[in-house]
Amino acid sequence: MGTFKDLLAWQKSLTLAKKVYQVTGNFPTEERFGLVNQMRRCAVSIPSNIAEGYGRGSDKELLRFLYVALGSSNELETQLILSLELSFMKEEDSRMLQGLNTEVNKMILSLIYRRKNGLDKNSRT
Q: Apex CA 5: angle with CA 2 and CA 7, to 5°?
């Protein structure tokens, strides 16, 4: 069955979190404890909740934590849009992060669908 590290959704969300840290490092200093902190917490929450849910050992718990990860992904999307509108990040960084976040979101939704429907219990998505 492997570990949470085998899940492609976890791998991709970890990449997203690292990229969020890199891009927000260039935000205005006064945002360090505001939007920067919030975005980083959301980004870290995604792979963390995937890992925690996987480690709980039941589909019910995994699903619960996947929904939390999905919520964090949606929250991050809002913050990415706001950051671009406030000109805190370059358009190319915004496209890259939003693209990664969309991929992660779809992977989480796929995991949720397959787990809820008893499909592919050993999936690497």
A: 80
